[in-house]
């Protein structure tokens, strides 16, 4: 693999399983500039198609899923490790459907179910785009639904 900085060849200094055995994390060092960086090797399932609301299909792209979730989590307190775990959980659930074509709505529902547990603000952000909220009232209704599902502390 080439160094992302100087484009020289790199050497692997350490490899280990990551993401509960679903990826390999490799520490690398550049022979040219001496910089260190990490790469991840993951299985890429070919052939999975996403059925869009318009009826068109496009190949599944992990990057697109990652960008959507990152946008929802923008400026929220989470570590990169937590984010990668969340992304892998969502992706695993999508692949475990064992379908060749998955509706984008189903992927959105999977993301929402995980964000609801991970970060309520990110959940609302994602829901507002995914469900196309047009008014503040739509936000209010979604917040009320969230509040109904949150267990209340016992009052003494």
How is this structure best described in words?
By secondary structure, this protein is an alpha+beta fold. The chain has 5 helices and 6 strands. The radius of gyration is 19 Å and the shape is elongated. Keywords: ATP-binding, DNA-binding, Nucleotide-binding, Repressor, Transcription, Transcription regulation. It holds the Pfam family Zn_ribbon_NrdR. GO terms for molecular function: ATP binding; DNA binding; zinc ion binding.
Short description:
Belongs to the NrdR family. The protein has 156 residues and is an alpha+beta fold.
Defining key terms:
156 residues, alpha+beta, 2 domains, 3-stranded antiparallel beta sheet, disordered C terminus
Q: Indicate the mean pLDDT.
A: 85
Broad shape: elongated
Alpha carbon gap, first and last residue: 62 Å
- Our Rg estimate from Cα atoms comes to 19 Å
- Give the H and E element order: EEEEEHHEHHH
Tally of individual domains = 2
Please report the number of helical segments: 5
Largest sheet: 3 strands, antiparallel
Spans of at least 5 consecutive residues with low confidence: 152-156
Q: Which percent range describes the beta-strand content?
A: 15-25%
Count the beta strands. 6
The oligomerization state is single chain
GO molecular function: ATP binding; DNA binding; zinc ion binding
Organism: Candidatus Wildermuthbacteria bacterium RIFCSPHIGHO2_02_FULL_45_25
Function: Negatively regulates transcription of bacterial ribonucleotide reductase nrd genes and operons by binding to NrdR-boxes.
Keywords: ATP-binding, DNA-binding, Nucleotide-binding, Repressor, Transcription, Transcription regulation
